[in-house]
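Severity: low
Component: inverse-folding endpoint
Summary: output formatting inconsistent between runs
Steps to reproduce: submit the following structure tokens with default settings.
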């Protein structure tokens, strides 16, 4: 059985690949580096894109990890490698670098979109909970606010505490950070 982590990573790379490997992106690279000079004038642009896709390599890199839910060893995708086949090592490196830049840019854009959607969803939940009066069913408020939470059984709010003060200064005498065991000490 594949780990959910691996499946998620594989799916994410495949989703990003679909956005990166568009005809427009690949033709931009073909034009930038004047790839396939013998074919550029005599074959259709789609044929150039197909040829470029054949010359691009995408390889998943896995490692043995312990699945935190099951406590068993499994393989998980931890990275991926992108390459471009060319007779010129310099050209292969430059094209591969452009491809990596496209992957990174698309990943960043995708994460921004997810963060914006998550933030909006949390704002709607916050507003719904703020309007909940004593005795109201908060699940009904949440379902009404989002339109998708009708089957909520529990609501768990998780907070993240900033511990940077403790980690940086907490051991200094009198800092009031990590307890040092002295009466009145931090």
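Observed output (run 2 of 3):
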């Amino acid at each position: 059985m594949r780990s959910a982590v691996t499946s998620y990573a594989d799916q994410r790379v495949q989703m990003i690949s679909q956005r990166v490997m568009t005809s427009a992106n690949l033709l931009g690279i073909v034009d930038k580096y004047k790839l396939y000079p013998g074919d550029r004038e005599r074959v259709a642009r789609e044929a150039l894109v197909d040829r470029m896709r054949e010359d691009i390599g995408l390889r998943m890199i896995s490692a043995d990890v312990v699945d935190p839910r099951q406590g068993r060893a499994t393989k998980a995708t931890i990275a991926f490698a992108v390459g471009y086949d060319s007779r010129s090592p310099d050209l292969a490196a430059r094209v591969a670098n452009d491809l990596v830049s496209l992957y990174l840019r698309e990943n960043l854009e995708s994460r921004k979109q997810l963060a914006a959607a998550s933030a909006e969803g949390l704002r709607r939940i916050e507003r719904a909970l703020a309007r909940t009066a004593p005795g109201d069913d908060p699940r009904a408020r949440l379902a009404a606010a989002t339109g998708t939470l009708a089957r909520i059984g529990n609501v768990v709010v998780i907070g993240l505490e900033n511990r940077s003060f403790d980690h940086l200064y907490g051991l200094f005498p009198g800092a009031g950070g990590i307890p040092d065991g002295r009466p009145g000490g931090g």
